[in-house]
Predict the structure.
Amino acid sequence: MELRHLRYFVAVAEELHFRRAAERLHVAQAGVSEQVRKLESELGVQLFERTPRSVLLTDAGVAFLEEARRVLRQVEVAAQAARGSVERTTMRLRIGYLPDALPTAFPRALRHVATSLPTVQVHLQSGPALRLVADVRERRLDVAITSLPAPTNGLRMVRLGVERSVVALPAMHRHAVEPEITIARLAPERIVVLPQEANPAFRNALAALCHTEGLAPTFVEMAEASVEHALLAVAAGAGPAILPASVIERYETPGVRFVALADERAAIQIVALSRPDHGSLATGAFLRALESATPTRRAEPSRGLVAVAG
């Protein structure tokens, strides 16, 4: 038994006329008659009394009509639930970002979405770089703000610019008043860093810079991927911390000052990753806002492990 059989039967039962039922359903009268006969054959009962001048419901037809209507109503309820689920999904925006690097375009884009699509529910979460990429692939996130290189094959990528590094120093440190500082001048000291998995692109760029300069500083790795904990460790005298420059706008810790790291080789490329087939109004609006808020922007499909040119 098909839903089509029920719809044809209900139309005939309500019109008590096969031609009018066919017109209501926008199908040929012969098709309606055939489907009703198939339904009667499958049920093993006669649903209509047919005469040359009239069509009447049998007792079986009257009983079947009530149940057929109920089934069709339930089908419509299920269809509405499915459509509503899709609509709610398209008005949900799940964004993941790195704990230590977040470009200025990000809050601007969020404000744009909040203004243009006030009903969108935004869910934010911070996480390690590789997990963010995996969450986008598995549809647990709509957008990931992360750094390159990363396994981006098959994902849509919006470049959000290059982020340089800063050194967080105790306020009374001898270099705290300088406009910038080289990695070589920090070499004798231990350097506070976040865990490798938090932002491997940044850690690798920092390690490469040290290697190029012939330096082997002692890294004090935090137990958690928390910028707040790193800055508290700096204030407590654990050593300077080297972090992406966007932390300046997001974090302020008493007793800690930020000084630019002079060497640009410790810079990283920040990107927004999403699935090309996301089909979400909210995701599309957010990505367009990111592109608009980024001075040199370019959206592109990714082809693999993307690296930053040195």
User: Anything to note?
Assistant: The domain at 3-88 is CATH 1.10.10.10 (Arc Repressor Mutant, subunit A). The two ends are 67 Å apart (CA to CA). The chain has three domains: 3-88, 91-162+268-306, 165-266. The CA atoms of residues 212 and 265 lie 10 Å apart.
